[in-house]
Structure formats: structure tokens, C-alpha cells
């Protein structure tokens, strides 16, 4: 599996990809509008050490420009410059300490900006260039300084408008347009997502075939990390969850410091980020060679619910169909096992299953692991379209202290998660390389434990 994957870093897309996105975005703006996108802030880890920099996805999607302290201004139908970048000016000293950066020249040469300015000039340039427009598209974000700055500009334009006669009077959220675009994946994006899925699959396969009792959860995490990096991913798409035994009942467990005991199940929820696109896979398997009776019963139940949920994915299906189907299957199974009582209908209506299955079955997947895009259109749950990518990830989590279920079920957590692309005719499971059938898993685990 590892040897079959071609290893190469993910380059930016060809510049036409970004140009076409900007064109489609600008086409949908109101008349005489401008749009501003700003880079994600640098974030301090401790003292003078920063977190690894991760660019903002909206800005990346439209420009491919990955540097901090930058902004993109779009001025549709401007005769000379529709697309402007504001960037850190080139600084030879910074070149020595932190390496390459585009500078103003690189912003036009390598990123196709019609015009570029040092970021320090943005107040003056935006103040002038946007003062002739009626609307500004800007999304308030985590960077409070940018939010303040835009509020300041709006105030200034409001005050000047009586005499100048122009200036934005409306601030609009670009996400209404842009996140709809991001929800529908282009062919080049699907290639990236497929690769991110394959890389994550390789990591999960290594875990399945190398994990042994006595290892620590963090050793398994290291195995995943090294596989992701060796195959060209920038790293995990989110902190990997490596949860053994009762830790698997903690949904966002990331401590990863327990030693794996024989008889445990191990739940691994880990995805890779490749060229700014994410994968998100969960598998659950025994640390020993086989599932215990109770573990197997719960596992088979989650697996059948997951497969039934995946089968609901296709063009025209409601986004929540997979969840609805998974809930039905899980409730039926929990009733059969005696973990729930009463009728299917009342358990569903009163959401009693939430005691054991408390999250949703799906989310969009893309540049963000919980990707952008509306799940509802007005009051209506949205329907799936070709090019949408979503996860399907039902689970069951029986708390350790759940004294009203038989002891053999307590402290068991199981989730099975695949990434699914909606196609013209149905769906494609991007993560199908990682086994999930009991027989496949036990065959692999038997080999490991016998070694
Ligand atoms: N890994 C986060 C999720 O499954 O949604
Ligand atoms: Mn996940
Ligand atoms: Mn997920």
C-alpha cells in the first residue's frame, strides 16, 4: 500500500484555477461591490515560539497566496486592477531568518495579482479604492484587529458619504457565495481529497498491522504522523484521536497516553491534510487478535448502520438521510441487545438513543475537516449534489459507569467513519482502502499477534 502511493508534495493549483474561481465569485456579487479577504493571524504557542502557520482557507481558495500578514481585495470590473494583493514586502533579513517570501513583486509575478502593495499601505489604498463602491463583502473572523479595521473604514465612509456621494453602505458576508462554491468540489479538488484519503488510509493500515498490546496510544499516533508526513501530507488534518479501552467513549479524546491492554478495542480517528485538503477516517479494532462477544455484537451493529448510511448517499438525497438511516438501524440493534427498551418509534421520537450515540452522522469535508457550506436552505434540509463530499460516521459509546447495561458492554466505544464523494450516479467511498469487516480485521490482527 505504502509502496503503491506516489510521493510528492502538493504544489499550488495552476493559476487559472484561482483566476476562474475569482471570476465566478465576482460574477455573483451585487453591482458596484468590492470584496476583501484577509490572511489568518499568526498564533503564538508560547513566549516567542509560534504555532505552525496555517493560511485561511477562503483566502487560499481564491488566491493560493499562503503567507501571513496579507490581504486580497477584489474590485469587479475595475478597468486596470480587479485583483489586488497586500503582502509583506520583501525583506532580505527575513529571507535569512525565515526564508522565501513573495514580496510585492512576487505577488504579481507568481500569484497573478493585477497590482500589489505592501500590507502597511492597506488603510490608504482600501480607503481610496473602495470609497467609490456601494457594498463591501467581508467576513468577520477570529482576527479582532481586522474586524476593528473594517468597522473603522465603514465608519469613515459613512461620515464622508454626505459630501462624497459614494462609499459602501452595506457590509455583506462573502461566505454566502464563496462557501457554496467551496461545497461543490472541482475535479482538481477531488484529486486532492482522494490523495488525502489514500494517505490517511495508509496510516490506518499501518496501525492495523503494527499495533501490539503494551504499546502506548502516543506510539500509535507517532506511527500515523510519520506515515502522513512520509507520504507528502503536511501532517494530521486535526489532532489524531487514538483511544483505547474506555477512552474510546470520550468523543474528542486526544491525550493519547494510555497503554494498550489485551482485550481492549482501539478507536483511531485520524486524517491527513494534503495540499490543504483533509481526510477524516475512523476505524475501531481489537488490540488482541479477536473481538470479544459483546464487542463484536456492538461492532457489527455499528458496521451495518454505517454501511446502510453510506448507501443512502447519492444525488438528490437529503443531507440527513444517512443519519436518519443510521439512527433507525442503531435503535433496532440496541433494542435487540436489550440496551434500549420500548418501541423503535418512541426511542427515535424521544431521542433516547442519544445516551449511546450523541453526535451527528455526517459533516462536509474539504479544505476544512468540518468544511463550510450550509446544511439547510431556509427551513429545508439540503439535498446532496455531485461534487459534495461528506463523512459517514455513526458510533456507539457505552460509558464505563453505565450500570443499567450488562458489564461486558461497559466502557466500549466504537465509531466507523468513511469519506464519501457524491457522484452523478451515486457515490464513491474515498477511504475504502481501510478494511472494516470483522473477518478482514481479525485476519490482519491474528497475523500481528502471532508474529
Ligand atoms: N475527527 C472529527 C470528526 O470525525 O468529525
Ligand atoms: Mn473523524
Ligand atoms: Mn468526521
Describe this structure in words.
This protein has 451 residues and is α+β, with helices and mostly antiparallel strands. It folds into 2 domains: 2-180, Creatine Amidinohydrolase, Chain A, domain 1 (3-Layer(aba) Sandwich); 184-450, Creatinase/methionine aminopeptidase superfamily (Creatine Amidinohydrolase, Alpha-Beta Complex). The chain contains 13 helices and 21 strands. The strands form 7 sheets. It has a 6-stranded mixed β-sheet, covered by helices on one side. Helix 8 (187-210) runs antiparallel to helix 9. The protein is globular, with a radius of gyration of 25 Å. Bound molecules: glycine and manganese (II) ion (2 copies). The site of one manganese (II) ion has 4 residues, from loops.
- Class computed from helices, strands and strand pairing: alpha+beta
Overall number of structural domains: 2
Count the E strands. 21
Read across the widest sheet, the strand sequence of neighbours is: 6-5-4-1-7-8
Largest sheet: 6 strands, mixed
**Percentage of residues assigned to helices:** 25-40%
What is the assigned CATH homologous superfamily of the largest domain? Creatinase/methionine aminopeptidase superfamily
Indicate the mean pLDDT. 96
Write out the distinct hetero groups bound to the structure. glycine, manganese (II) ion
Instruction: List the uncertain runs.
Output: none
Number of helices: 13
CATH topology value of the largest domain: Creatine Amidinohydrolase
Distance between the ends:
20 Å
Overall, the morphology is: globular
CATH class category name of the largest domain: Alpha Beta
Q: What CATH architecture of the largest domain would you give?
A: Alpha-Beta Complex
Cα-atom radius of gyration: 25 Å
**Share in β-strands:** 15-25%
Amino acid at each position: 500500500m505504502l509502496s503503491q502511493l506516489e510521493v510528492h508534495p502538493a504544489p499550488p493549483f495552476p493559476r487559472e484555477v484561482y483566476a476562474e474561481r475569482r471570476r465566478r465569485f465576482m460574477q455573483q456579487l451585487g453591482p458596484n461591490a468590492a470584496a476583501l479577504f484577509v490572511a489568518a493571524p499568526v498564533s503564538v504557542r508560547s513566549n516567542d515560539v509560534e504555532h505552525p502557520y496555517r493560511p485561511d482557507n477562503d483566502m487560499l481558495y481564491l488566491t493560493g497566496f499562503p503567507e501571513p500578514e496579507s490581504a486580497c481585495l477584489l474590485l469587479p470590473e475595475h478597468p486596470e486592477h480587479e485583483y489586488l494583493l497586500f503582502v509583506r514586502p520583501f525583506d532580505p533579513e527575513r529571507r535569512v531568518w525565515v526564508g522565501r517570501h513573495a514580496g510585492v513583486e512576487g505577488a504579481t509575478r507568481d500569484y497573478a495579482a493585477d497590482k500589489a502593495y505592501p500590507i502597511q499601505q492597506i488603510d490608504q489604498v482600501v480607503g481610496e479604492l473602495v470609497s467609490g463602491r456601494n457594498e463591501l463583502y467581508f467576513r468577520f473572523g477570529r482576527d479582532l484587529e481586522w474586524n476593528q479595521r473594517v468597522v473603522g473604514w465603514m465608519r469613515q465612509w459613512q461620515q464622508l458619504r454626505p459630501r462624497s456621494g459614494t462609499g459602501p453602505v452595506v457590509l455583506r458576508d462573502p461566505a454566502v457565495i464563496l462557501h457554496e462554491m467551496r461545497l461543490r468540489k472541482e475535479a482538481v479538488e477531488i484529486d486532492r481529497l482522494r490523495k488525502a484519503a489514500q494517505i490517511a488510509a495508509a496510516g490506518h493500515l499501518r496501525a492495523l498491522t503494527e499495533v501490539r498490546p503494551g504499546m502506548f496510544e502516543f506510539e500509535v499516533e507517532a506511527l500515523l504522523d510519520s506515515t502522513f508526513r512520509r507520504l507528502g501530507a503536511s501532517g494530521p488534518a486535526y489532532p489524531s484521536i487514538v483511544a483505547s479501552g474506555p477512552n474510546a467513549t470520550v468523543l474528542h479524546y486526544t491525550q493519547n497516553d494510555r497503554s494498550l491492554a489485551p482485550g481492549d478495542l482501539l478507536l483511531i480517528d485520524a486524517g491527513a491534510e494534503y495540499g490543504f485538503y483533509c481526510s477524516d477516517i475512523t476505524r475501531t479494532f481489537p488490540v488482541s487478535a479477536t473481538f470479544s462477544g459483546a464487542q463484536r455484537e456492538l461492532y457489527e451493529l455499528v458496521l451495518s448502520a454505517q454501511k446502510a448510511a453510506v448507501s443512502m448517499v447519492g444525488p438528490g438525497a437529503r443531507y440527513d438521510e444517512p443519519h436518519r438511516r443510521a439512527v433507525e438501524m442503531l435503535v433496532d440493534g440496541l433494542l435487540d441487545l436489550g440496551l434500549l427498551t420500548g418501541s423503535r418509534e418512541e426511542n427515535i421520537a424521544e431521542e433516547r438513543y442519544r445516551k449511546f450515540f450523541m453526535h451527528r452522522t455526517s459533516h462536509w469535508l474539504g479544505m476544512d475537516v468540518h468544511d463550510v457550506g450550509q446544511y439547510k436552505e431556509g427551513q429545508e434540509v439540503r439535498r446532496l449534489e455531485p461534487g459534495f463530499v461528506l463523512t459517514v460516521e455513526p458510533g456507539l459509546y457505552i460509558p464505563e459507569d453505565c450500570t443499567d447495561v450488562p458489564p461486558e458492554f461497559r466502557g466500549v466505544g466504537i465509531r466507523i467513519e468513511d469519506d464519501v464523494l457524491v457522484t452523478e450516479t451515486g457515490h464513491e467511498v474515498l477511504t475504502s482502502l481501510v478494511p472494516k469487516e470483522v473477518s478482514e480485521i481479525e485476519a490482519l490482527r491474528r497475523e500481528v499477534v502471532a508474529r
